[in-house]
Each structure stands twice: as C-alpha cells, then as structure tokens.
C-alpha cells in the first residue's frame, strides 16, 4: 500500500503527454477547465471533447483504466443528469412516464452539465496519471514563483510538499506497526459504546506522535547539518526546461482555443 | 512557540510536513481501526480524525504554520497522492459536495491557533474554546460549500437548512470528538513543546 501512496495515481509511461513539461500540462489544464464553462453550443462542446479525447488517447494508458479511476465521480455525473431530468422544465414534452413529463430541454441541460463535469475531471486526472507527484511539486514551485513578490513562501510550500511525500508512507507503515503491536497487547474495543471506541485511538496516537515528532526533528537536524539554509540561492538537481515538443503542444492548444472561440454563439 | 514573522525554520518545515502525514492517516483511520466505523441513526458513519489533526496543527504549530501545512495537505491530495478520506485524491475530490471540508481545514487550523495565541493560557477551557472555534469553521465552510456545490454546479435545488440537516449526524459525532481533541491536545502540546524546545532556542 505504501508504494502506491508515494507514486499517487501515476502510471509510468513514455507517451508524448508523459514527456510534456509538467508546467505546460498544469497551465493547459487550468485554462481548459475555465474554458469548459464558456462553452455554449454543441460545436464548442465538440471541440473541447475532441481535444480531451485526443489528449486521453495520446497518454497511451488503457481507457478502461482511466475510466476506472473516475469511479468516485461517476455517481456524481449520473446523479447530476437525473436531477436535471427531473427538475428542468423547458422545451417540449418528450415522454410522459406515470404522469411525469420529461422535457427536451431537460435532456440537453442534463447532458451539458454532465459533460462539463466529465471533461473537467477527465482532464485533471490526466495530469495526475501522467505526472509524478514530485514533478508536479517542482512545477508548482516554478509556476507559483511570482507569489514570492507578495511574500508567500513558495519554496517552503514546495519543500514541505516533497517532505510530506516522503513522510506519508513512513507514517502509514508506522501506524500499521503500532496498531498491530497494540492489538497483540490486547487492545480491543470492538464492542462497547462509541465513547470507549474513540478512546481506543489514544494508545495508537501517543506512540505515533512520539515517533513522528522524533522523525521530524531528526530530519530537520539532518537538513541543517547538510547546509540547508532556506530557498535563497538553492540550486536544483532536476531542472525544468521547456522543449520543442512543449511549444508545439502550446501552439496546438492555442489553435484549439481560437477555433473554440469562433464556434461560440 | 515564539512568534516569528520571518520565514519558516527547518524544523517548521518538517513539522508541517509531519502534520500532512498525520492528516493522511487521520482521514483513513478506519483502515487501521476498523471499529471506528459506527452505525449512527441508521447510517454508517466512518469516523475520520481530520478535524482532530487540523485543530491539533493549529494548536501545536500556531496559526500561521498550522494553516500553511493544511494548504500543503490540500495540494498534496490534489496532485494525486491518496491522502483524502477513503484513500481518495485528485481535483475531483474538490468538485464533490464535500470538497469544502478539505479546504476548511486550512481555516480550522488558523482559527484554533489564533484563539490559543489570543487567550495565551493553557487551561482546559482555552483548549475547548479553540477546538470548538475550529469545529465551527469546519462546518460553516464545509456545509456552505456543499450548499453551493449542490445548487450551483450540480444544479439541484436544496435549501440551506436541508444542507445543514444532512450534516447533523456528523456534527453530533464531531462535537463529541472535539472534547477529546481538547484533552489530548493540551497534554500533547505541553509534552512536545518540551521536547522541541532546545531546538527552538
């Protein structure tokens, strides 16, 4: 389990999308998400859908796998569609089921909102499917860099993200170990009132805190011993560089946007 | 902890990251303690300790670092690491009606830290006030977000009261938990402050 935690939703691969600069991916997806809400006729929706599907195919990840990853939101999408079918009362009555009318406007509205949802979630999940959390963190540091001007600690944010990526699996293993250790000592609150069960958290939390704080302290000490001195003047092992392919993708995306803008009514 | 307006120290960074890890565990505590799945008012409620750890972050790290580490928590989840409840991750989690709760933790940590710093005492009453301040933020933001999510982008039409009624069973559970937070936090803050003090000086 802890291995799957550290790579997140990332699926290793060498597709063009995998090799794109993470900053470019974030920027494109960010703009795409805003643009979804500006679409207002079927042509503009088709353009966006085509772009999303093209991106999905270019990742070379099995579509069934991507769809499976969207599982938690399928419910939301279907729920939204049904809700609109029931609530919206525009256009002509199409079918009447048990004195209940379904309007043509309702189907369109429902489809529209569900499609928006689907595109939004599909595109954002493409980012996490093709990019490791570490490179997204690097990209965030680079993209948010201007925020340094308003004294928002961008470097610290990125570093804290990287450290927590390292901490999460360790702490999970630790929790695993402690809960087993306590169980072997006879901690069992499976039965009894809720209050007693909640109290059972304490024998888990106290050892966890002890080891976790020790870890944090040791890491800070180790970092300072190696000369960590804040973000100022720090160089990087992994440098992000825009490549030719990134520019091609950018130009393509801009063309898509222009096409989209013309097709809007 | 002493007030510092300047940048974070190294220990602050690692402690902040630590709380991100603790949040990840708190969100999924039922994985390790399956008995925390309780049936309440006909519905199975999985107890999460997210509010607990968010409040604790505010109380132990102070309002600034506490809130900062909760921003990191939200970001780490968004970039695809399964740290949200039910081992979930991704932007999709923010779009769902309960996404507001993830964002609310930032304010939970800030408010509880702020109350503690304002009161500047370590009585049980202070901790209870701070914890309830955090809980208040949690539900105000979370439920309001849910109301807007359901009405605006899902396009339903529920009243604000209904949204609150939906959250009521959880609220009752959390009020109970809050007293535990206050008790535990007070003990922990004292002990851990002591252990990291030589470093702070």
TrEMBL record, chain A:
The keyword Ribonucleoprotein does not apply. GO terms for molecular function: transmembrane transporter activity. It is found in: Cell membrane. Pfam families: CbiQ (PF02361). Keywords: Cell membrane, Membrane, Transmembrane, Transmembrane helix, Transport. It is a multi-pass membrane protein. InterPro entries: ABC/ECF_trnsptr_transmembrane, EcfT. The chain crosses the membrane at residues 26-53, 65-87, 118-140, 152-172, 245-263. One of its GO terms (cellular component) is plasma membrane. Forms a stable energy-coupling factor (ECF) transporter complex composed of 2 membrane-embedded substrate-binding proteins (S component), 2 ATP-binding proteins (A component) and 2 transmembrane proteins (T component). Transmembrane (T) component of an energy-coupling factor (ECF) ABC-transporter complex. Unlike classic ABC transporters this ECF transporter provides the energy necessary to transport a number of different substrates. HAMAP family: EcfT (MF_01461). Belongs to the energy-coupling factor EcfT family. This is Energy-coupling factor transporter transmembrane protein EcfT. It comes from Salinibacillus xinjiangensis.
């Amino acid at each position: 389990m802890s291995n799957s935690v550290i790579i997140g939703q990332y699926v290793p691969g060498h597709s063009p999308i995998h090799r794109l600069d993470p900053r470019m991916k974030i920027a494109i997806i960010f703009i795409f998400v805003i643009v979804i809400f500006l679409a207002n006729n079927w042509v503009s929706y088709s353009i966006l859908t085509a772009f999303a599907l093209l991106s999905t195919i270019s990742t070379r990840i099995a579509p069934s796998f991507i769809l499976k990853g969207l599982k938690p939101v399928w419910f939301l999408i279907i729920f939204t569609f049904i809700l609109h079918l029931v609530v919206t009362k525009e256009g002509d009555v199409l079918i009447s089921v048990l004195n209940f009318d379904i309007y043509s406007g309702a189907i369109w509205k429902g489809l529209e909102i569900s499609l928006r949802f689907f595109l939004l979630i599909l595109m954002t999940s493409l980012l996490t499917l093709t990019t490791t959390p570490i490179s997204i963190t690097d990209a965030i540091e680079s993209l948010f860099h201007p925020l340094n001007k308003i004294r928002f600690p961008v470097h610290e944010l990125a570093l804290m993200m990287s450290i927590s990526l390292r901490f999460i699996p360790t702490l999970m293993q630790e929790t695993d170990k402690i809960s087993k250790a306590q169980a072997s000592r006879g901690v069992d609150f499976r039965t009894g009132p809720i209050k007693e069960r909640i109290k059972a958290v304490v024998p888990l939390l106290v050892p966890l805190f002890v080891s976790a704080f020790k870890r944090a302290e040791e890491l800070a000490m180790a970092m300072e011993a190696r000369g960590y001195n804040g973000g100022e003047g720090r160089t990087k092992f992994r440098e992000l560089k825009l490549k030719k392919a990134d520019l091609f993708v950018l130009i393509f995306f801009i063309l898509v946007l222009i096409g989209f803008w013309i097709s809007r009514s | 902890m002493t007030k510092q307006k300047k940048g974070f120290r190294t220990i602050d960074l690692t402690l902040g990251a630590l709380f991100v890890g603790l949040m990840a565990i708190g969100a999924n505590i039922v994985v390790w303690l399956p008995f925390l799945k309780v049936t309440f008012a006909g519905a199975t409620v999985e107890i999460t300790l997210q509010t607990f750890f968010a409040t604790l972050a505010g109380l132990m790290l102070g309002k600034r670092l506490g809130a900062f580490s909760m921003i990191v928590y939200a970001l780490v989840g968004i970039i695809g690491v399964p740290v949200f409840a039910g081992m979930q991750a991704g932007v999709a989690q923010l779009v769902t009606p309960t996404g507001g709760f993830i964002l609310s933790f930032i304010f939970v940590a800030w408010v509880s830290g702020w109350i503690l710093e304002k009161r500047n005492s370590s009585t049980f009453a202070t901790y209870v006030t701070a914890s309830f301040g955090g809980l208040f933020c949690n539900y105000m933001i979370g439920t309001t977000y849910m109301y807007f999510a359901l009405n605006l982008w899902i396009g339903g039409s529920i009243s604000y009261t209904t949204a609150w009624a939906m959250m009521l069973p959880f609220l009752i559970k959390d009020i109970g938990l809050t007293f535990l937070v206050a008790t535990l936090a007070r003990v922990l803050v004292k002990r851990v402050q002591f252990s990291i003090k030589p470093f702070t000086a």
